[in-house]
Amino acid sequence: MLKRASLLLAATLCLLLAQHAHAVWDYVQKDISGSWTIYGAYLDAPVPPAPGDNKVAFRLTGTAAKNMFDAMGPDMADGCADPTIRLRNRDMLLCRHRLHDGYRCEFGFDLSTGLSIGGSVSGALCKP
After folding, report:
1. What is the rounded (10 degree) CA torsion for 19, 24, 27, 30?
2. Strand order in the sheet with 45-47
3. Is the pLDDT of residue 55 over 60?
């Protein structure tokens, strides 16, 4: 009887702790720092946007970029040659951390289709 009561108490305590842990997190939208640009063609050779050729590139910095970087998991194994630059990449989202200027995440969209297209020129995140 005592074992059954102990198990019931432990299960109840676990449920209460799980509910409390869930209640601590609150969905809050926060301000971000960064920049964006609308362009046509490609990021490495941009032209003015035109009907049917409108793309947007976003660059987030600061706390938002740090939180995204941390949530993305391990660094890219074959990232930059410079060991002070850490890269994390998931599909079309690329984030980096450099000791001297902090965190930065880049992504973009084709505004004609809504599809993710990335937001950085290949290799640009490894440059000093």
Report:
1. -170
2. 45-47, 33-42, 55-61, 102-110, 93-98, 85-90
3. yes
